[in-house]
Amino acid sequence: FPKQTFSLCCKPFRCRSLPARRKYMRSPLVPEMATQEVQLNETLSHLKTESDTLKTKLEEERAKLHDVELHQVAEKVDGLGQFVMKTRRTLKGHGNKVLCMDWCKDKRRIVSSSQDGKVIVWDAFTTNKEHAVTMPCTWVMACAYAPSGCAVACGGLDNKCSVYPLSLDKNENLAAKKKSVAMHTNYLSACSFTNSDMQILTSSGDGTCALWDVESGQLLQSFHGHAADVLCLDLAPSETGNTFVSGGCDKKANVWDMRSGQCIQSFETHESDINSVRYYPSGDAFASGSDDATCRLYDLRADREVAIYSKESIIFGVSSVDFSLSGRLLFGGYNDYTINVWDVLKGTRVSILFGHENRVSTLRVSPDGTAFCSGSWDHTLRTWA
Amino acid sequence: CELIYVGDCGSAGRPSMRGSPFQFRLEAIVVEMQDSKSGVKCSEQKLNISTIPHVITGVDVLTWITNKMKTTPEEVQAFGTMLVAYGYIYPLQNHKKLVMCNNTSLYRFQTPYFWPTQNWVAEDSDYAIYLAKRNIRKKGMLEPYEQTHYSHLHDWMNHKWDFIVMQATEQYKAGKERKKPDRVVFDCQERAYWIVNRPPVSNMFYQQAIMRSKVKSSVSLGALAKYVTTYKNHDPFLAPCLPSNPWQTDNDTYWTCNTRRVDVPTKMRVERWSFSLFELLSDLRGRDDFKTFLKKEFSGENLAFWEAAEELKWGTGSSMTSKAETIFKTFLAPGAPRWINIDGRTMGLTVKGLEHPHRYVLEAAQTHVFLLMKKDTFFRYLKSPVYKDIQKKAINPDPHNFSPAQLEQNAQSRSLGIHPIILWQQEEEEKAKAAAASAPVDVKAMMSKIDRNK
Q1: Which of A240, A249, B60, B280 would be a feasible disulfide site paired with B273, CB 3.0-4.6 Å?
Q2: Nearest chain B residue (CA) to A165
Q3: Considering only CA atoms, which of B302, B387, B318 is closest in space to residue B359?
Q4: Where is the RGS domain (chain B) (predicted)?
């Protein structure tokens, strides 16, 4: 570089460049610093007051509209009968923990990914394995089926999301046609196609979500606002518009406008990482599952949390949630190997399902609601109906 | 989240642009701008009591970019602002506003050490030390948003706060030993770096949240409960599917009688179309029926426009320009063959937007058209002979009643169905056929063809 221009750019100090003998010396809090602390606290308290005032005002606005509780509304709704839900298929083939799965729009095929880097496409109805791809990384935490049924996307510790076009020829090497689409600076935690095969939405351990053009690999929009890893996302059912919700290690669930990249709503009521978010079928609410062992329902129009699904006997985290077709049932996969089924309106648990031999890591209801599929660290997937 | 942590959970700032080819080109340009002969003109400037070397003005930077890239003033302005937004150039006066001003505002090139392409992530501990150091230098110097950051960092980094204060003191002492002009320059560089990497936050989020319209819980919760009631009989977990749930009986008739192009749909499916326009359009079989109705009314252009707008929104980036052109010619241009009747303001905005098409350029027009269909056309459809007809024709499959032996048999002979790739190929063929059939007749071309044949 031209010397004179940079002659005054002294290398700024970084912690690591200090002489070693002073590096880790613990100095007692000097009196001069104590007075600075007091002054800082005074100006900080002014700022905090303003922030608190606004927060209180927001709560007051919300409270004005808070004229009824969900369980009161639910009193007018019929109770649910007894449920007989059984494992109808067990898919064996993964050699390690199953981390993610997604349904094809044909209502019977699924794609699943696991810790050993394998991504498998199954016809869950016949239990036939149709395709298998080995990713160049382990911990494939995210996978998704394209709306056309002609491709799948996946990624994980490689920090990328790649698209593999599928083929009718079972012997074809899918890895040859692989397309790298998304690039993050930390692991990929979730991915989803939008309404077509041409765009993918991703979330990552780098704290951001992003929207990508599949054909060119171009970043269309990025979403900043989480203060820690983003673990999950879900797209709103179309009529409600171009929004999606994400959940992260910062305990926040954020609703985003895909067009502007802005966070339009934010909810922070969980006490630990949010592992899963899923929209209510009408798009006016969403559910979340967290390491704090609760699932919660958030009403987007009233802008608040309206239900907490928990029991004293449930102490392990929820990894994954999904609604039944009508939105009446909420299925939750838990780290204690069980699946709990909740009555969304009345707030009670209607069923507990056993079968997996290790934690349930992923759970999705099929596109026509006839079944749901769960994936587990016990290396298997099960369909239930 | 028991996964392998790659990096510190708390320091997820912006993703760095490491390795992307675009900013190596950008860097090359920035270096070129600093060439002593052909670069941007620079001079010494007096700022407060110090003299700062190598200062440039906004207007000189933009002139240089114009000469180099030979493009429109808007692009030049945007490029200049990007250089400031990403931290390659920093303003000396209005340091919080990261834009390039087309006047004598003063700027300076950022030292490469602080370039975003360098490999160090703007970590929270570095930021904490920077803020602590500024606080030592001059009490009460931190801005409100910096104080918010400082208090937040103080909370979650409390365990190493002594270390942070100590590092800040060391840096402060070392800084005092530098010559004054060097110190001023360095302070500017460092401050600029942190403005880019820890931009000012405000209480704006709360203000916006307060202003956002909300509805009463009784209204929104009532709507959630109503949705459940409406769809109750359609939820396979709550009511039996007819003839049977394929997963339970291993018989896939339920799927075969609900395919995309089935001639006679089931009664349940037809009922679901009446729940909302969204349901009707989401089920392609329902959309076909709606199109039959619209054809009879000679008002298919709204739906055609809506479909074209969806294709634009969810399509590839490269196809946008051509799609936008076709849409304009077909639906929006004066005298267009399938002209849609939208209000003047929306039409004006849309046509203007199409000069520089982007994914959401048709959003306003599409919403207008959708609402029109939702509030009017949809209800007329439900009362129409077309819909009443299909309601009558629709079948109600009898429930299966398999014996254990039959169930066993079913399990042995599960149908393979049609592969989604084959279905998709069929769909694409059908779409192409339909597009050709419904394309407006080009009268001129036909007339000239007839003339030629004569």
Answers
A1: B280
A2: B421
A3: B318
A4: 276-391
**Superfamily classification of domain B223-435:** Regulator of G-protein Signalling 4, domain 2 (1.10.167.10)
Supply the ipTM of this predicted assembly. Answer: 0.86
**Each residue's pLDDT tens digit, A74-122:** 999 999 988 889 999 999 999 999 999 999 999 999 999 999 999 999 9
CA–CA dist B73, A369 (Å, integer): 55
The per-residue pLDDT for A37 is: 45
Instruction: Look up the CATH number of domain B4-118.
Output: 1.10.10.10
B237 contacts A83? CB cut-off 8 A:
yes
Count of CB atoms situated within 10 Å of the CB of B6: 15
Judged by average pLDDT, the poorest of A301-310, B8-17, B70-79 is B8-17
Instruction: Determine the Cα–Cα distance for residues A258 and A248; give it in Å rounded to an integer.
Output: 18
Nearest to B139 among A36, A77, A263 (CB): A36
**In this complex, which of A27, A40, A301 lies closest to B220 when CB atoms are compared?**
A301
Domain boundary assignment for chain B: 4-118, 124-197, 223-435
- Pairing between β-strand A188-193 and β-strand A230-235 as defined by DSSP bridges: unpaired
Q: Decide: A273 and A290 in contact? Cβ < 8 Å.
A: yes
Q: Does B201 touch chain A (CB under 8 A)?
A: no
Size of interface A-B (CB pairs under 8 A): 338
Residues of chain A neighbouring B3 (CB-CB closer than 8 A): 139, 141, 187
How far apart, in Å, do the first and last CA atoms of chain B sit? Answer: 77
| Cβ distance of A229 and B139 shorter than 8 Å | no
- CB atoms B181 and A8 under 8 Å: yes
Q: Looking at the partner chain, which of B12, B35, B140 has a beta carbon nearest the beta carbon of A207?
A: B12
Distance from CA of A26 to the nearest CA of B (A): 6
- Please answer yes or no on whether A198 and B147 come within 8 Å at the CB atom: no
What lies within 8 Å, CB to CB, of B208 at 6+ separation is none
Contact A369 B235 (CB under 8 A): yes
Distances (CA, A) of A105 to A108, A110, A148, B264, B423: 8, 9, 8, 21, 11
Q: Which fold has domain B124-197?
A: 1.10.1240
Question: Sheet harboring A285-290: ordered strands across?
Answer: A274-279, A285-290, A295-299, A304-309
End-to-end alpha-carbon separation of chain A, Å? 67
Q: How far apart are CA A34 and CA B119, in angstroms?
A: 36
* CA nearest to A261, candidates A220, A200, A214: A220
Q: pLDDT above 90 covers what percent of chain A?
A: 74
For A140-197, what is each residue's pLDDT tens digit? 999 999 999 999 999 999 999 999 999 998 888 899 999 999 999 899 999 999 999 9
